[in-house]
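Memo to structure team: turn this sequence into structure tokens by end of day. - J.P.
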Amino acid sequence: AFYRRGSAYRMKGAFDLAIQDFGNALAIDPKYTPAYMGRGGAYGSKKDYDRSVEDYDKAITITPGIANAYIGRGSAYVGKGQHDLALQDYGRAIGLNPNNEIAYRSRGDVYHSKGDFDSAITDYNVAIALRPYRSGTYISRGNSYNSKGEYGRAIQDYDKAITINPKDATIYYN
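Reply from structure team:
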């Protein structure tokens, strides 16, 4: 019950309560991987990236084949500014689950932030092929095209994002 309640607290944005409940679950079962992942995510939401990485490290040590643990740790590495480690983790997640759209999109975001727009676009293309109805990925790919000076392609992606989610005002700022 602690894990479930911690997950609900996390979804609600009550990260301190979530961390407490995930800790209680781990006191009962110190090898319960989902509790480490949940707590790692809650720490990440609080921008406590060092603790987030520690919990994802523990989850990966206990159960090394979970792609989402690598994605979570990769996100914490991004928060710490350790982009190369994030790229490695997103690559591991893709190796474990090549159909994980979030891993491709997240890796694309890191490539974009590093100025490697071609690699970012390649990853966004895969993410779009896996989940073509996610407007945010079109925005991200459009931003990469825009950064390359390929304005026509950027506009096409922004138009597609608007078509998918016309009520998202943030799309109109790109």
